Amino acid sequence: MTATKHFIGGESREGSGETLSNVNPANGKPIGEITVGTRDDVDAAVDAARRAFDDGWSESSGSERRKLMLRLASLIAEEAQTLAQLSTDDMGMPIGFSWGEALFAAEYLEYFAGWADKITGDVVPVPAPNVLDYTLREPVGVVGAIIPWNAPISITMFKLAPALAAGNTIVLKPSELATRGPLRIAELAARAGFPPGVLNCVTGSGAGTGAALVAHPGVDKISFTGGTETGRLIAASAGRDLKRISLELGGKSANIVCADADLDAAAAGACAAVFVMSGQQCIAGSRLLVERAVYDEFMGRVSVAARGYVVGDPLQMTTQLGPLVSQRQLDRVLAYVAEARDGATITLGGERLGGDLADGFFVGPTIVTGARNDMKVAREEIFGPVVAAIPFDSLDEAVAIANDSPYGLAGAVWTNDLSKAHTVARRIKAGTIWVNSYLAINPGAPFGGFKASGIGREGGKHALDVYTETKNVYVQLR
Ligand code: NDP
Q1: For residue 228, which of 436, 471, 454 has the smallest C-alpha distance?
Q2: What pLDDT, on the 0 to 100 scale, is given for residue 478?
Q3: What phi, psi does 130 have (nearest 5°)?
Q4: Is 90 exceeded by the pLDDT of residue 15?
Q5: DSSP labels for 381-402?
Q6: Which residues are identified as catalytic?
Q7: For 169, which DSSP code?
Q8: Which residues line ligand 1 (CB under 6 A)?
């Protein structure tokens, strides 16, 4: 099987290092080899990105960038099916979702194309005569973008779209578990007409290739999405050179259901919050806080809705839950469930599925009832289809439980009482709060974490802040 090549300076390049082999998580069969980028490969990619930055891209006009970005968005939309197939084979996301993800990535890019020629500074009032004081927004430079495997196409775009709009150049390092989709996007960018070196992709491992990119002195900024522990390592390494960083990390989000909510809608929402993508989502609503007065009735409805999920071959359009990404992830999820049995009750799922699915890494919707917030199942990010249900007696208690977490990525409240909805939204310490909804992500809205869930925001005009430097110009007029 031929290994992937890097994409550097506008062309595919053989790597100089070893390769890693991957299996399809739905059936355990080999799907290909990934080239592991060496320090030399990272050097070549950073050099190409620097040359492209200095040779004109950083001073390109916003309208030129907008046109290129719109062209790339069209190519991604045209190739959505191929990109979806690559993600599904690599990491097991059901094809309906991976297709939607690719189309969403195209929309996300279109949204930021609209910003490319609208990044402006300010004129600053000065308490003195004959002075003009204004600001300029300039691209940061060469951005190292490191992404995880769980939503490879859309997370690639969460980085590329604002970075390109602002005039940066990029070296992308996808996860070794989902490389081929992001690599294809780099190839499509060349076809769209981006100058060589504006978007490069070096494939490989995190500890080797990723760490070399973070430590590279030619990189001005690291934009990272992944686990909180990796985020800490990256922040420490990048901090040595005072590189700019933005970090999108893990979560353990609380989904609060009040007794007055539309319980059927809330039950469907609670399942989608944690079972979609087999719970392999940073925003998963993995702590389900339910008002005690309706706890039993509500959990009954959740159980009925969860049993309706179609688990199986991710290539079927009707499949809602595919496999977990790897044997390692399967072992990890099952270990959390085993530990939860000591003190809580597993009322659904929690086991590896057999039969036709026995060769893949499948776990169905898993419900843990009678959990307490101090249990591991409620404190740590599992990244599997496992929800820990915890009863509460008052809104104050629900908010206290929600905030009693090292994380602060997202949360939700289900209620028909407007006052409760806004009160909870204000009091939860997290970057995104949904009311009577879950999972929706809007390209124009800020997205990111409080506390151990990250630093900085993606989405909307907020993302442009982390991909630009602001310069002040003070002019003494005669
Ligand atoms: P990891 O942190 O293991 O990996 C993320 C990326 O970092 C991968 O490309 C990985 O490469 C790379 N990497 C690993 N170690 C290093 C290192 N020392 N230096 C540089 N790069 C490194 O996370 P996962 O891929 O397992 O993704 C799951 C995590 O991502 C979850 O915690 C999830 O919550 C978080 N996430 C956060 C989101 C957010 O927006 N807040 C969105 C989606 C996911 P490789 O895989 O090749 O080892």
Answers
A1: 454
A2: 86
A3: 55, 40
A4: no
A5: ---SSEEEEEEESSHHHHHHHH
A6: 248, 282
A7: E
A8: 146-150, 155, 173, 175-177, 205-207, 210-211, 214, 225-227, 230, 233-234, 248-251, 282, 381, 383, 409, 449, 454
- Class of domain 254-442 as given by CATH: alpha beta
User: Do residues 395 and 441 make contact, with C-beta atoms less than 8 angstroms apart?
Assistant: no
Residue 292: per-residue pLDDT: 98
Q: Does the pTM exceed 0.85? A: yes
Atom 46 of ligand 1, nearest CA residue: 175
d(CA 57, CA 195): 8
Q: What tokens were used for 318?
A: 């009707």
| 273-332 pLDDT tens trace | 999 999 999 999 999 999 999 999 999 999 999 999 999 999 999 999 999 999 999 999
Q: In Å, how far are 32, 354, 370 from 346, measured between CA atoms?
A: 37, 18, 9
- 8 A C-beta contact, residue 436 and residue 420: no
Rounded to an integer, what distance in angstroms lies between the CA atom of residue 81 and that of residue 79?
5
Show Cβ contacts of residue 207 under 8 Å, excluding neighbours closer than 6 positions: none
Q: Do domains 6-249+453-476 and 254-442 have the same CATH topology?
A: no
How far is the centre of ligand 1, averaged over its atoms, from the C-alpha of 209 (Å)?
A: 13
Question: For domain 6-249+453-476, which CATH number applies: 3.40.50.620, 3.40.50.2000, 3.30.565.10, 3.40.605.10?
Answer: 3.40.605.10
pLDDT beyond 80 at 1: no
pLDDT value at position 230?
98
State both tokens at 236. 């420490």
Residue 16, pLDDT score:
80
Give me ligand 1 centre to Cα 475, in Å: 45
Counting residues of the chain whose pLDDT is more than 90, the rounded percentage is 99
Task: Give the separation between CA 77 and CA 89, rounded to whole angstroms.
Answer: 19
- Can you say how many angstroms the Cα of residue 214 is from the centroid of all Cα atoms in its chain? 18
| Per-domain residue ranges of the chain | 6-249+453-476, 254-442
For residue 141, report the distance from its CA to the centre of ligand 1, in Å.
23
Res 165: pLDDT: 98
Q: Give me the mean pLDDT over the 337-357 stretch.
A: 98
Question: To which H or E segment does residue 476 belong?
Answer: strand 468-476
Q: What average pLDDT does this structure show over 427-455? A: 98
